[in-house]
Predict the structure of NLR family member X1.
Amino acid sequence: SCSLGDPIEIHKRKLFLWFSHLPREEKQFGGYFSHETMHVDPLIVERKASDRAGPLFSPFRAQNLSSSSVTIEQLFEPTDRTAGRGVNVLLYGAVGTGKSTVFRKLVLDWCAGTTLNHFKLLIPFSCEDLSQMSKATSLRDLVSKKYLHLRKHPILCGEGDQTKDVLFLFNGMEKMNLDFRIGATELCSDPNETLPPSVIVVNLLRKYLLPEASILVTTRLSALDRVPEKYVSHYAQICGFMDPDRQRAYFTSRLLQDSVGTTRKQEAESLMELLYLNLQRKSQLAAACLLPSYCWLTCATLHCLHFTDATSPVRTLTSIYTSFLRLNFGGEVLGSGTGTNVPIQEHHSSLMLYVVRTLGKLAFDGVTKKRTSFSEKELEQWVGGKTKTDEELRQLAMFRTDVLDFFLAPCVNHGQRLSTELSQQEEKQYVFAIHGMQEYLAALYVVLGENKSVLEKLTKQVSLVIGQASEDVNALVNILSKFIPLRLFAVFNLLKLFPNLYEKFSSRNKGTIARTLVSEMFRSEDSYNEDVLDQIEQSLLGVHGPRPKQYSEGPPFELYPIFMGGLLHYGNRVLLQQLGCEIQSITVSQITSVLRKYLVRELSKPQPPEELMDLLVLLYEFQNPRLTAEVLTSIRSICLTNVRMTALKCFILSSVLSFCSYSLQELNLSSCLLTHDMVQMLQPAFRHTRSLNLQFNNLGPESCIILRDLLLDPNSSVRSLQLCDNPLQESGVLTLMEALPENKTLIHLSLMHTGLGDKGALELAQRLQHHPLQELNVAYNNIGDNAALALVDACREHPSIHTVHLYLNPLSDAGKQSLAHSNRQVKVLASVTEGSDISENWHPILSVIRENASSWDRSRVTQQLKVFLRDLEWGRQQQPNLWKKLHFRRVEIGVRKILQILEKDSP
């Protein structure tokens, strides 16, 4: 074994440390991933030189490719070497297929000794780094500059056949300008000769420099022909995840890795099952997930939607999509890719900006016209339809080859690609690989101000020219003002006004963006759709069961305005600036100023719960505390009833409300499927709420500990607490009662149908004495006569309680009469009758039963309603007054209607 001082051992240790470093985008998954646990090998297929750029087989028939699939190790088997020369392997593939990941994993596996062991030395280079080097250097200096520990190693001296044990790796060849023409690139066989890096790489591939060394080059499709065929031993195409099993393995490694807790593991497993079912359907998602990059985006989105908790870092949907683009296109420029002597970097045209101006414009047009699919003719029109110069045509060719298929995919219909089913008359349709990407690019197109009018564009160009020459213009005016007539002097002053004129157009454009954002946010036709987070989840997991009715004519684009807000956040603007898409701070300030006015005005109108949830998501994505506080000041009540709350929605609600310093009048979270963990996350939001409605959820005894602490908190302002239809049980209610002696704010408490029982009612009666409660609802709680009378007696002696709800409890006739004839200062709602008279509170009692009958125990409610009918019939018979008899009959009809509803809904 080699000693620790061996340069190759040092090289392995350092390489392992460098290549084990995960990009910061991976930290959002919790930081528990490693390359070993999360890596899934993409499909790699060896291609003949003649068909290397030919079409792939159908991605839904991966078995056709599996027979010719290879591993990187097989491509470098020693038996493949001929005439003592090393092997040159060209590994190519589209953007997002996993070239860089395979490259990184190959280096790590060699360092660990699990692959390519017959190579003593593996030397990786980034072609992007090499292309940035301006000085000429030798191969040995190039290696020692990056790997100082190999500076004096004899294996690279070029003597004998030592270099047969060396493997050079070059990642991203499309970033370099390689030219194999003898007239352009001189020959070199000396590793100590000083040459430009591109010349060194060319001579390595020619086998003129260190011919025994093997080489692996990764590249995109557009640069495939830069290396002449005679210098390539093997062409290998990386095809991504061409079958659902590879996709499932990837999702399993990502979503199940950290499932330590039982509940978390069960949720992750059920999530995986739904995802796999959607992939097996050969859905549009399955088509997108052929690219591992889109598997990453899907995982990141699902992780955010389902595994956000109180300790999670702030993750927004916009930041996930922006990080996704930075991972795939970070810092790239769009070059001509012609193989000439002009370096690609000299063009300085941001690839991402090119995407925005072409595909972003297409996406914006689709959102505007509520369309998701586009024909080939439309693509031709939008993408490069107006190119003029040869340079633009070359850039367009590179864009089409490398980037277009990353964003657009053939439309999938009923599990088949339309291209296999189209008739001669029909046209092939394309969609954005993931629906959210269309909305993201459309939002980026708008926020960058690319949808300017012709006048605005012209004014900007003139303004820039005048602005650049402003000093010269001022100097010229000062000199000539003494000699020229006043008319010409006025012309010079007019020219100086152009920058101000442009500023007016510019501020008008920012107002247009804000108005667009608000109009898209509050579309009346979209207000009946599910909230945007549920829509995202359905797009990834599919819709199981009956599809919800959509009231809008076309597909909802409710993520589009949310992305517009999220793109204005500083963190996303920093990432976009790295991509060459700069959003100026003054632009954000102007948009925010206009947006604040529009949001405050729109929120003065009542909004459906789903629309209100979307607004909270927008404010969360924006991450602007001042704007959030000012907008929420105009909202006194937040009603999210029937919105399916998730951990992420609770995190968003709590985060947004934490920006407010005032008390919310009402927070209605009834029928939201809340659990204990969600209530724990929402506790800070509850503290500043006066009326808290948590009815019809799934809160058990453990949640009462949180609610007790809430009532004991001196900063809490809760005046009304509604917990109807939660399985709190006696133990939970007793825990809640511990707060009553010290709490001084609660005046309305609803514990209807919470499993209170006699013991809970008696305990409640003892703790009421010094509490300022005014109304108490303990209906439908299996409370008997004695406990009910004790509770009502305690309420009679209480100075402020005026109403007690006791209906739907198993009270005897004698018990009801005792309660009815008690102190009239305390209103007791126990039955629709009071002896031989109708109770004056019959209407609120029946209203509550009618609203909740379908969710309660039908047999129990039916039994109670029959008792009401019996009491009503007996009372009507006792009444001589015809008017009162008719009144009894009216109440009876109401009770029978509820009974009919129960019988109709029963299975």
Observations:
- The two ends are 75 Å apart (CA to CA).
- Residues 498-521 form the longest helix (24 residues).
- Residues 55 and 220 are 15 Å apart (CA to CA).
